[in-house]
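Thread: ATP-grasp domain-containing protein, structure

OP (GT): Posting the sequence first so everyone is looking at the same thing. Length is 469 residues per the record. Can we get the structure tokens written out before standup tomorrow? I want them in the notebook alongside the other entries.
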Amino acid sequence: MENTRQILFEKNYVFNKAEKAFLQKLGDTKRVIVIWFRAEYGALTKLENFQKPHDGGLIGFFAQQTRDSYTPEVLQHYDMIIWYNADYTGYENINSDILTVPRKVPELDTFLSQAINVIPIKKIDLIEGEEIMTTTICRFRKKFGLEGPRFEDLDHLRNKTLEKIVAEKNGVPTAKFAIVDFKKLQNTENAAMQIYKKIGGFPMFRKAVYGVGCSECGYIRDEKELKEWLDENVKAKSEAHLVEEVCRGREFTACVALLSDGTWKPLYISYNGEMTVNDNIKSCKPLPFHGDRFEDCENEFPNIKKFCDKVITAFNPPFPHLLAIQGFQLDIGKDGYYLTEMTYRIIGRRDTMLSYMYSGVSQETALLSLHLDPNYKAEPDPNKPKFFERHVWYPWKEGTLKSHRGVDKSAPISCKLLYNWLVQPGTKLHNAIDAGHFIVSITLQNYNKDKLLADVDWLMANWRPDVKK
């Protein structure tokens, strides 16, 4: 860490002579300079098994608000860290606008405008780690002539209607769907009939074309709800939405690494429980996180590699990078999958925290390595601890959190428990609406997998945070 330069950067900051010389040396001596921009998330892993190539430079451009999450163990891998004060305006309402309209980040603008004068443009690889900043980073790449995907290169991986259209065109199985453009809709009665004809029955599931974290999604249970929903959104001139048939089965996420040589490497499959993530959160019930490497769950998910290969071939995402394929296994334990959507980035806070213990490959390590090292193959760390790990997350529930009371020591469980409290005692809560509303996550660790899974079941059935109305 003593060799990592750290700068508190403001929008009018000007590099001093030493800083400019340092960046110029990086540009002269390194094959590639990866600049990792982050706004909302801090460090989610320890960058386990990260091996930065000698000819790769790494600059972190991180929110000052997340600084406490970066340990010396993590910071030591960076050549330079730029800390800036992130503007979180609008983060509480993640909708189409915030995901498709570039956000102003004057600090990054100022940094890049100076950096391109001392680092060869072709050596700069600007990447992000959050869906909410993808459009912004695409804009910066275009503005400064940096290599890497533009907005239009990624839209078919982010726009849920385009995902459906590409899947249907290429024979990738997906749920029946209807696209609703409220700004062009004239007759809601006719639209309701057309939607019913395409889907074939109730309930239906609605979601925004652009959205993350279960925002702007929910069920339409009957014809009355469908017509009311259409009328409300036409009046509000809402953005386009997607309506789908409700899938039965098991929701899953297949995480893969898109390698520099144009091939892909399976990492792990994560799944929750019998309920969907959306249902778990909005019913305020505990949400378990499970996961294993592809080769360790072939019986649970037969032919899943073949399904993923079909998806990757159909969508042809830009390599190298991380990709997560989200879908439904129609019958648990059997071959038969529907694609729901994709994620072209690290998968998110919860899955990223678990990724190393699931697969021996940290999502953060993989993302940086894919962009730094053209020979990186995303092999699992042979030194990964031998114990198994799972998490249980507890959504908000209406009331006040009275304390950080944990599981009683007399509870009939054998796992080591680690608590990550996300809400302070005294906080008044409403029922959870989206994936930003969690009280606490509990990490369970055990060398015996059967005992681990039994303890997960016990926690979900018997323990709740200390919330009182």
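GT: Both are above now. Quick notes for whoever picks this up: The chain has a mean pLDDT of 93. The CA atoms of residues 46 and 73 lie 7 Å apart.
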